[in-house]
Every structure is written in structure tokens, then in C-alpha cells.
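User: I'm preparing a small set of examples for a lab meeting where we compare how different chains pack in three dimensions. I only have the primary sequence for this one, and I'd like the structure in C-alpha cell form so I can line it up with the others. Please keep the answer compact; I'll paste it straight into my notes.
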Amino acid sequence: MMDVRSLGYVVIESTNPSEWQDYGTNILGLMNVPSDDGSVYLKMDQRPYRFAIVKAEQNRLRYCGWELADEAGFKQAKEELQAAGIEFTEGSAARAKSRRVRGLIQLQDPSGNELELYWGGELDYGKFISPQGISGFETGFNGDMGFGHAVLPASKLAETHAFYTDVLGFGDSDYMHFHFSPDPNDPGQGLNFMHVNNPRHHSLALYEDAANPVGCVHLMLEVTEVDEVGYCLDRVEAAGIPVVSTLGRHTNDNMLSFYMATPAGFAMEFGTDGLQMNWDGFTPTVTSLPSLWGHKFNMPDA
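Assistant: Understood. Below is the C-alpha cell output for the 302-residue chain.
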């Protein structure tokens, strides 16, 4: 079974990457990494970057990069994908260099979300200096917990969930089911929360959604101090950025957070105090209440 360690990075396509440079530094408090290829790179810890924003003709999340332990695990992952009949593309040396990794492959899940599996992620140990004075983000030892989590749309929820659990080796954390219509025949929408081999409660969630043009429901960043959540909320409101969800605390991962709009059209959860789990003997849960308090959602008009 594959040993995926963390959500290492995301690649976001943007019609105007400079919007992300402004948003990433002035709102999120991430550190801009100078580049000469026209892309925007945002750093939050010992890794060279966690967000890569590339120029494109549309705004969307393009890739989630999932970290494997080592080269042996990378080779094993390719063998398991081949045995399962799942197609993948070997990343070029130039692509690996740009991702700051030693090797990667690209593939799609059954709902069409694109992902990269990689090994040998670099540590540049460049000092993280937040332009907003944030002392740090919760990413583990040398970033081994990844930058946070991603919630992706899944038009084929059951098949996509099975892909991540049965093929990629993710573990189940929690399940929720939502009904937004009073129609008793409305099947509702499922939401699977999954973890990889680190203590973060979930690094991935799949939301049953057949129509999502930006390829993402939300991404999450976790700071280490609660006041930083409030400071960020103040920056968001001062900048006139839509607050997609008010401040609240989630049930399943205990995260104290709020959600805001991003330049790409999906949401960004900004939080603190998320649970760190011991997965030995863990029994996956089914949760009927998303939040203990708060988190009143108000999706901005498209």
C-alpha cells in the first residue's frame, strides 16, 4: 500500500498571477519568493514554496502535489498504479526541477482532479519572514505535515473515494452528508474526510459536486497562534474580500477558522488549533454537525 506523507504543494492557474502575489502576502501573510519565470511562488516554512501560481487562460486549482517517503516508495507507487490499470505520466526533469523535487508523476482521480505524486522534496531552510508578522504556520517537523488540506469536488464520489483509499492508501477520518433542499427525495451530497501518514486530521476531503469550474472547494492554512486568525480576518474585511464563512469551530478536527474568497474563485480556510491525531486503532467517524458554533456560510455571487 502506498505511503503518502503529506499535501506538499498546490499549483494554481491564474489569468493574473500578480493578484495572488498581493493576496498571498498582504492577506494570507505568506512570503513571496522571487522568480524569473513569470510565476508567483509563496513560502510558509522550510520548504522552497507551497503555492505556485502560473499564468493561464483560466482561474483554477490545477494540481495537488502529494509527497511520498522516498525513491523506493515512489517506484512502488508506480508499480501499484500500473497493476491497478491507472494511467500516469512521468514528470520531466524540468518539471521536477520547477517543483523542487527529485521525481514526480502526474495522474487524475476518477472525478478528473489532477494530482502529482513526488519524492525528494527539497528543504531550502530559507528563513520564513511573514510580511504580516505571522510567527509561523503549522506544517510539522521540516514541513512533514504538509501545508494544510484541500477539499476537492468529486462528481463520482464513491469511485473517487475508493481511488484514494484503495489505490493511494489514504485513511478515512470522517464522513458527513448534507441536505440543502427540503425535498425528501433529494439525495443530498456526501463529504469524505481522509488523512495520510501524518497527524493532521485530514489532508484531503472530497465533496460530492458535479459542477465546479475552478477545480476546488477550498484550501486550508493553519497558523500557530489564535490571534493571527483574528488579524487575518481584520485584513480581509479591510480589503473588502468576501467572507465566505464566519468565524467558527469545526466538530471533526476542532479547527477554529473562517473562510474567505480567493482570486481563483474557490475559498480559503484560515484557522488554528486543529487536532493532531494518533491513527493507531482509530475508528472513522460519521458526523452530523459540521461546527460546534459559527461557520455561517454566505457564498458570494459568481
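A couple of notes for your slides: The mean pLDDT is 96. Helices lie at 17-27, 71-83, 93-99, 157-167, 226-239.

User: Perfect, thanks.
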